[in-house]
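Problem: given the chain below (388 residues), write out its structure.
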Amino acid sequence: MTSRTRVWVLAISVPVIIFALVGGYLGQVMAKDDTYQHLRVFDDVVAHVVNNYVEEVDIKQAMRGAMRGLADALDPDSAYLTPDLVKAYESNNNQGPADIGVELTRQYYLRVVSARDGSAAAKAGLRTGDFIRAIDKRPTRDMSVFEGMRLLRGAAGSKVALLVIRGNAADPHEVTVVRERSAGPDLTTRMANPTTGYIRVVEFTKETASRLKQAFDSLAKTGATRYIVDLRGTARGDLDDGISAARLFVSSGTLAVRQTKTQKETITASAQDGTVAAPVELLVDQGTAAAAEMFASALGGNKRAELIGERTLGRAARQQLVKLPDGSGLLLSSVRYLSPSSAGIHERGLAPDVEVEQPDVEFGAAPPTKDDTLDKAIQRFTEQKKAA
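Solution.
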């Protein structure tokens, strides 16, 4: 290996070794002898690339590609950030006060987790499961969730162009969406029938617990004796806010388990919890994520409610930024939240107790008027009443 090649190899290898020492799950295996063997193999790969690739190698670009690959191998929320993105993350510079109302994850491209009720994205026809292949003609193949969410923000009234893929469609759809400030309530209510109250939680906040209690009390005065809480497409909100809201329904037992690399913390109900004792069913789908999953996990894990619909997304981790010597950084999932039985949720999701398949909707077509998941929840109440 020439001295020039050694410098290039060192330039790439040092950050990678640093990453292996501090990064998520890779840190768990550093005690194994074969870990360093893999690093030596990587060292050889870089040398072969530098010496044999047909064109001059851009070392900086190659290093960033290697770092992205390592981060992508962890989970969709872990990511490599360039120095500019690190500065934006630390300064909370989110590009503007308006967005299009979606939550994203990574699955080769950026993928829509949910489109908030009444948002610009929802009005443009975006749905859970859509892939965003490009944002303003910038490919999302190597784009982190943080960067994608940031690019979707801007001034209210400004436009963003998206290239969207749905299902197995051969041709992507070009969609222009006008950014808007988030509007509309975080929670809405109505009567599904004379005895069943329906509560739609759009987003979890620190006020969700108190608003849920008010909603239950208000619906009870209207005649509700049983309740359906709709968490479909609910993906915004802090994980702890979901647990706080679950305290309304669980009077004793474990609500969740918070796990770090070195310890587990059990989160339990307290004496003043469980003030809502009425029967509850939860509606969930692939867009149910984060705080909504913690809420559903706590109620489902304590046999306080059934989950009806589809398996949830599986986003139940908290990330921390690890800065690297060159100013770049790594967003690493450093805390995971587990179910009351200590089962994993992150990247696995919650399986429904009663599965209801969701209909496919062609891009641009109106959603079905019949809500099979809601109908199934009402049916379950009827079956339970007969069984009693």
